[in-house]
Amino acid sequence: MELGAAFTVFLGLCLSCLIILIAWRQINKGGKLPPGPTPIPFLGNLLQVRTDATFQSFLKLSEKYGPVFTVYMGPRPIVVLCGHEVVKEALVDQAEEFSGRGNLASIDRNFQGYGVVMANGDRWKVLRRFSLTILRDFGMGKRSIEERIQEEASYLLEEFRKTKGAPIEPTFFLSRTVSNVISSVVFGSRFDYEDKQFLNLLQMINSAFIEMSTPWAQLYDMYSGIMQYLPGRHNRIYYVIEELKDFIASRVKINEASLDPQNPRDFIDCFIIKMHQDKDNPHSEFNLKNLVLTTLNLFFAGTETVSSTLRYGFLLLLKHPEVEAKVHEEIDQVIGKNRQPRFEDRAQMPYTEAVIHEIQRLTDIVPMGVPHNVTRDTHFRGYLLPKGTDVFPLLGSVLKDPKYFQYPDAFYPQHFLDGQGRFKKNEAFVPFSSGKRICLGEAMARMELFLYFTSILQNFSLRSLVPPADIDVTPMVSGFGNIPPTYQLCLVAR
Ligand code: HEM
């Protein structure tokens, strides 16, 4: 009997050791991850990371563990990269290894690895190359991207004129106009501003971006295995994205029915033509799923990012009227009042360029970046990250790296000007990220930001409803994205 009890205890001990060993190996997958706070079972480091202030919690942890550390978001280990040097070493110097897309369960529930943003491996390479080519070709086609933006900007100015200087909330003014630029590329036409379906789509995109930034989405990313079966707010993003998918699928059907292979009208047509050309290849990535989801990626990313940046930018200008006055002055000198701004004007407008860069730096639209992962076992700064390790390049920590920006938290356009007032590049300016996954719409976004800011400020002065000193620029929500606070302003004709 005694021998039996001892044997049971021995067996129990062996079993426990085995379970711990398996768990440990699973966590480390044979690698040597950077140090970090000790995780506890199931919760990981949730006691050290506030899901409503993840970015700030990561910054705090980096004070203790340095610029590269491991943190367990629930049971899932992620490697966090902080500051310009370390992010550059990973995304640029070891670009191939760090080019994988990390796990984002809250979104991948809809995408399941399809569409350029969430794809990996050959699928991603094919979709990225194709999307870039189409964006470029549509820029060089009959009507350049620049002309499309100028046309949209003039519609926006008309809308602003109709307000006659009365207070407005700018969100949908800006998202309608910006979204029409990418819409004309992916759908071949713009939407009327009064179109109810369009406004509904924009509302969905806006609310999906907000939902992606709530603690619910982060909890889902950690515990998707359980949460996918539970009711609750975390399901909102899923349903909103499904509705957006349905809309794109309906547009694809319309295109298919009226396709003329000799005259592609838009991104969707070009993709369908490629699907036909590849129809005998069972491994082709030109299939319906990738068509719908890549189109959705472009439509979503092309709308929310630029319009949120413009919205944040106007708020910053309301708070700093002296900066706005200098931009007006430069516009009057270089462009005057009688013609539309052109993208090439920026070469003569260093102050405006600096202001737009500073706006993007402080808007910091995706502070934690979009997660990456390593495509193979990767040696990095003396550690070994096993293939498939998720990596968060904290873009916000680069944009506020005190080694590269004198006043990281202040709105200070001089960060991008030299002593003679000439525009000065800064290598830590990475709102579009860097390396192989760098934003696919960067060229379009830069052109939009310049042309919208200059067109609006050429014609209007911004007026705040409260004294500038009382304007609070703290984001309304800060998670995956930084969502600007809601505010009203008046646009007074100049
Ligand atoms: C101010 C505007 C914008 C900002 C700040 C921005 C920022 C970003 C960032 C940080 C990423 C993640 C890069 C990474 O994984 O490291 C990204 C990816 C992406 N962006 Fe943008 N973006 C902007 C505008 C646009 C526009 C206008 C489009 C569409 C035309 C677009 C399409 C995409 C796509 C498709 C990806 C995924 C690229 C990939 O995974 O290979 N973005 N963007």
From TrEMBL:
Q: Which residues bind heme?
A: 439
Q: Does the keyword Electron transport apply?
A: no
What catalytic activity is recorded? an organic molecule + reduced [NADPH--hemoprotein reductase] + O2 = an alcohol + oxidized [NADPH--hemoprotein reductase] + H2O + H(+)
Q: Please state the protein's primary subcellular location.
A: endoplasmic reticulum
Pfam families of this UniProt entry?
A: p450
Q: Subcellular location, in the record's words?
A: Endoplasmic reticulum membrane; Microsome membrane
Q: Which domain of life is it from?
A: Eukaryota
Q: Top enzyme class of this protein? A: oxidoreductase
Q: What is its EC number?
A: 1.14.14.1
Cofactor(s) needed, names only, are: heme
> Which N-terminal residues, if any, form the signal peptide?
none
Q: Which UniProt keywords apply?
A: Endoplasmic reticulum, Heme, Iron, Membrane, Metal-binding, Microsome, Monooxygenase, Oxidoreductase
Concerning InterPro entries, the annotation shows:
Cyt_P450 (IPR001128), Cyt_P450_CS (IPR017972), Cyt_P450_E_grp-I (IPR002401), Cyt_P450_E_grp-I_CYP2A-like (IPR008067), Cyt_P450_sf (IPR036396), Cytochrome_P450_fam2 (IPR050182)
Q: Name one GO biological process term.
A: xenobiotic metabolic process
Q: Which GO terms describe its cellular component?
A: endoplasmic reticulum membrane
Q: Name one GO molecular function term.
A: oxidoreductase activity, acting on paired donors, with incorporation or reduction of molecular oxygen, reduced flavin or flavoprotein as one donor, and incorporation of one atom of oxygen
**What is the documented function of this protein?**
Cytochromes P450 are a group of heme-thiolate monooxygenases.
Its family remark reads: Belongs to the cytochrome P450 family.
* Protein name as it appears in the record: Cytochrome P450
Q: Which organism is it from?
A: Microcebus murinus (Gray mouse lemur)
